[in-house]
Amino acid sequence: MRKALITGSAGFLGSHLASQLIHKGNQVIGIDNLSTGKMENIKPLIESGQFEFINSDITSSDVLTLDALTGIGEIYHLASPASPRFYQKDPFKTIAVNTIGTNYLLELARRNNAKIVYTSTSEAYGDPEVHPQHEEYHGNVNTWGPRACYDESKRLGEVYCYEYYHRYQLPVKVARIFNTYSAGLRNDDGRVISNFVMQALQQRDITVYGDGSQTRSFCYVDDTIQALLLMMESDKANGEIINIGNPIEYSILELANLVKKLTHSSCKITFRQLPKDDPRMRRPVIEKAKKLLGWEPKISLEEGLLRTITVYRSQIEKQKGG
């Protein structure tokens, strides 16, 4: 039985990842300060008997001396606010968790001879001038804007990973994750799919920012989690940055119309001003993931949206009944 640590374990990706690792028979320790994660996400995991939860902040050096983390073999570093609503609300903690926290987790991995996957982001490419985005592209990130606290701190986290790999030969792998979704997303986090689905189900106007021509690529959570597991397993991924996302691109207006269609909603689509530094286009090149991991996404946007809609609709009906 392997012993794995997940930071940000009470969040969207962290709780899904923990569930998969437990299903595969692993012992999992989760750390989260619950700033954006929710205890309800990990309650079933705790009840499994294979999951230990530590309510702690990885920006404290205490993480290096926790007895429970002795003998850790694998570290998945997922801790960080990922929604603009949350990372812009507390930019200094966002910067800290992706820099100071990443440094501590890399040092913990070094002391335990552990493998580590660092979850970076497609935001590392900023508002790209190269399309689609490949891992060698250095990006177009504005350091002087409302998204910089997340974009730039994630990029600096990658630098920490580079130094630990080259100085200490630490088996660290960097996943640049593109938009991931499912019903596990908080329905109040402000991200586009959760926003659109909730608005459509509640017969409220679907809010599109800008003219809706900006594009994104959406990857269902099961596919993203599978990629992270494969990255941890693969020695070929050591010292590599790998795009993890769906290479099929949709405009935001196409997404809005698809959500409206699948929810059978009579809501209207309204338009508001585009936020500052919102990327115009985003689509990953995933040839490296195919080559090194044998991975590519399997779940289509329509199938993933139908799964998401079913759960969100059930939640709404349950709230009405309560």
UniProtKB/TrEMBL annotation:
It comes from Paenibacillus sediminis. Belongs to the NAD(P)-dependent epimerase/dehydratase family. UDP-glucuronic acid decarboxylase subfamily. Transmembrane segments: none annotated. Its main location: Golgi. It is an enzyme of class 4 (lyase). Keywords: Decarboxylase, Golgi apparatus, Lyase, Membrane, NAD, Signal-anchor, Transmembrane, Transmembrane helix. Its cofactor is NAD(+). The keyword Zinc-finger does not apply. This is UDP-glucuronate decarboxylase. It is a single-pass type II membrane protein. Residues 5-305 form the NAD(P)-binding domain.
